[in-house]
Amino acid sequence: MIYRRKLYQQLLDWKISERRKPLVIRGARQVGKSTIIREFAKEYHSFIELNLERKEDLLLFELDNVKDIIEAVLLKKNVSINSDSLLLFIDEIQESPKAIKLLRFFYEDFPELHVVCAGSLLEHVIKNISSFPVGRIQQLVLHPFDFEEFLRAKGNEQVLRLFDEIPIKEFSHEIVLKLFHEYLIIGGMPEVIKTYIETNTFTNLKEVYSEIWQTYKDDVEKYGRNNSEKKVLRHIIDTAAHEKDRITMSGFGNSNYKNREVGEALRSLDKSRLIQLVYPTISIQPPQEIDFTRKPRLQFLDTGLLNYVLGIQSKLIGLNNLCDFYRGKIIQHIVYQQIQSQNSSLDNKLHFWVREKANSTAEVDIIYQHEQYLIPIEVKSGSHGRLRSLHQFIERTNHHYAIRLLSNKLSVENVSTPGGKPYTLLNLPYYLSTRISQYADWLTAKH
């Protein structure tokens, strides 16, 4: 069963681009990289797939130059290069650092050949390649399914059409919110969604999560350079989900590990996109200045996986209102995941804002850059919430726009800070976090 992903349109754009370069699809394991490329191959007359975990395919890249490699591949597959009718897919390319380095020559010597690559643990291979072909390849990141992709997979096209009208119709709120809570429980891993849709039950999902999570835990062995590093990585994988909102490196997970050991391990996991380090910004207008000296947050690859690791999915299923559950951590996590997944660029990462002074601390959940503005976004676990941190940010920034994501229907409020600065607050239902860019446009253009 194939589900159309948003990234597919970018693949189509790449196909017809005059500046088309070899394309590397990045992303964590099991987010659907190979699946989307195989589906994309239907846009071509001919398709060649090489898997470098197979010895016979790997040996092709032991040849001396790209010309010989291509001739050998074409001969082996009995096809020829003909305009845009042939797609070459090199899967598991991390198995050959030489193949990665040779991508530049695919671009320079055979620009008519359409080449797409994918692989697991690419980030850990690339860091050891001295001549990585920067500027001669294009890179895109594939995330887990977002809420809209989940709706499309379920066949809820009618609901999706509601998203195209801004502002969304008020009558749809309860229906869409219920669907979003369903998505929040299971998350966006393709195999989980496939199993859920085919069985129409939560019952069989635990086994799927277990298999996925065990795969990630097994991968930890490949991140560490020695037994000591592997031991720290295993500890972090086992304890990270239970850490408080902002972490301290030293003693992470009630351990005796030092700041440096934990920091190196977490940065390694960050590269794998399994657990991201989210650092705060101290900026109130672009460009954002990131403060790496302050405590970061942790963001897991997928909220469904986080729910599984925490062991809370059965409790989530029985709740009508998930907003106040688990101190609001799950809602904040899913919103971050939704907003981040709308951007497939390699360096895309959201940040939160902090102002830490003696006897006074302010923290805004997400800072979203929209054109010349840094728009503060608060994520409220309930239907209401205090605005103290938003007030502090707005009083210092150069605009008058803020967004609050909550379980209520969409509304717009005219608010004033304690210092008397008026601003416009857009109250946006959680499920519209995938459309944050469009609503930021609407907010700044209409108010």
Q: What topology does this entry show?
A:
Blueprint: H1 7-16, E1 23-26, H2 33-40, E2 46-51, H3 55-58, H4 66-77, E3 86-91, H5 97-109, E4 114-118, H6 122-126, E5 138-141, H7 147-154, H8 157-163, H9 173-186, H10 190-199, H11 205-223, H12 227-239, H13 259-272, E6 275-278, E7 280-281, E8 297-300, H14 303-310, H15 313-317, H16 329-340, E9 351-357, E10 360-370, E11 373-379, H17 388-396, E12 401-406, E13 411-416, E14 422-429, H18 436-446
Parallel strand pairs: 1-4, 1-5, 2-3, 3-4, 7-9, 11-12, 12-14
Antiparallel strand pairs: 6-8, 9-10, 10-11, 13-14
Helix pairs in contact: 9-14, 11-12, 11-14, 12-13
Q: Could you give the order of strands across the largest sheet? A: 7-9-10-11-12-14-13
Structural class: alpha/beta
Average pLDDT number: 91
Give the DSSP E fraction (strand runs of 2 or more residues): 15-25%
CATH topology name of the domain at 7-141, in short, is: Rossmann fold
The total beta strand count reads: 14
- The name of the CATH architecture of the domain at 7-141 is 3-Layer(aba) Sandwich
CATH level 1 class label of the domain at 7-141? Alpha Beta
The biggest sheet amounts to: 7 strands, mixed
Helix count, DSSP H or I runs of 4 or more residues = 18
